[in-house]
């Protein structure tokens, strides 16, 4: 699954270094825990909450 992570997250550019790093870390964790519940993938409740908050961010303006 690391190939999937590299293809989808390793080169992301969201306009802010911190957002890029957050996206990459979330993507990496998801690729390592593929098929598991999110509560199993993320090490603590705080990390899980931050991942959910990141995914709900309304800032994204994807050109498709």
What does this molecule look like?
Residues 3-56 form the Transposase Tn5-like N-terminal domain. With 64 residues, the protein is an all-alpha fold. Helix content is 59%, strand content 0%. The longest helix has 16 residues, at 17-32. The model has no long low-confidence stretch (mean pLDDT 81).
Number of helical stretches of at least 4 residues = 4
Structural class: mainly alpha
Tell me roughly what share of residues is in helical segments.
Answer: 55-70%
Shape: flat
- Rounded radius of gyration (Å): 12 Å
Point out poorly predicted stretches.
Answer: none
Q: Quick check: average pLDDT?
A: 81
Major beta-sheet overview = none
Beta-strand percentage range: under 5%
The first-to-last residue Cα distance is 25 Å
Quaternary organization? single chain
> Helix and strand string, N-terminal first?
HHHH
The number of E-state strands comes to 0
């Amino acid at each position: 699954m690391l190939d999937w992570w590299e293809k989808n997250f390793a080169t992301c550019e969201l306009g802010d270094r911190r957002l890029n790093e957050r996206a990459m870390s979330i993507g990496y964790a998801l690729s390592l825990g593929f098929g598991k519940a999110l509560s199993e993938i993320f090490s603590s409740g705080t990390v899980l909450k931050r991942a959910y908050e990141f995914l709900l961010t309304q800032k994204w303006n994807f050109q498709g």
